[in-house]
Design brief:
Order of helices and strands: HEEHHEEEH
Number of strands: 5
Helix content: 40-55%
Oligomer: single chain
Radius of gyration: 17 Å
Structural class: mainly alpha
Number of helices: 4
Largest sheet: 3 strands, antiparallel
Length: 163
Amino acid sequence: MISNEPLLAFSFALSTRNNQLATISDDILDNLDAGISKGFINDAYVTKAGINVWLWTLGAYESIRTMCQAKTCFTSECLETPQLLKKKLSKVRMPDVKVEKQGNREPVSSNRSPWCEVVETKDLLIGDSDEPFSARQLIEEYFQVIYSITPSEIVATHEESYN
């Protein structure tokens, strides 16, 4: 099982959460595909996608943060890309959760939509409207990072990081 789901070697709970994030991301992409077509936006589908993107971002950030915090459980090479992804996820999470810019306690506008639809790519731009991120690209990058981890890069369980 570990060869198919390497995160099991780190944490059964985190591996399960990752699978849940995959299910949510499928829902997000399905709702974007159904909600944006031929220049028409179906608010019901796009709103479902937007709500799930917000929740997905929180879960993805916490999963990556947990891995990065447990440095002794992974090889140093393995943690390089999760640490970069954590910074990106943080730049989305801060404006969407705390309504402030990441890293400098400066507010983002509260008089804004939490996302911006991009009809051409059936996407949502999320995070700070001054520095938005593509929801589709962030989802893709998250799973590229997670699925690139091999069993040999996990050297201890999550619990062992507390010893």
